[in-house]
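Hi V.,

You were right to ask for the full record rather than a summary. Here it is.
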Amino acid sequence: KYARKILSNLSIAAHLDVNLIQIQDLGSNSTLSFGISLAGKIDDKMAYGISIFNPEKIEIATESEIASAIRVGLNRQVSTNLKLYLDVEKIIDTPLNILAGVEYKPAESLKIRMGSSTNPGGISFGLGYTLGDGKLKIDGGSQYNTLLGFTPGASLNYSGQTNTSDE
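Predicted structure:
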């Protein structure tokens, strides 16, 4: 992933992903996909983002593609402890998906997140914790959707710079 601030209220990012599919007794295949994003601030309390993922459909296996998608999102800082999110996502050949979420910060180092989506219908819950001086962040959560059931996830993020902002 590569990101760069190009104006005071506009940043651009690009990423390259390696996708791997393995099916027991049938082998494996890998391919590359990519995306580009723009993000910025509308004012001190509201930000936006636009992302295009995989503008060209890529086949990863016979009759199985990595779909193209476009996503537009807004977030609003309601108070120092509360942030609201709204995304509209369109994956080619699927109905529109609307995602809404809330992030509550009960302590300086802890964030509690909840959200929902329309297609497939689902709910999510997550926690984020910042260790020490802000260089190390741990995030975890789970999503329930009507197609896959529960899907857990976790991430560990280390930044060489101290960063306590939410940008």
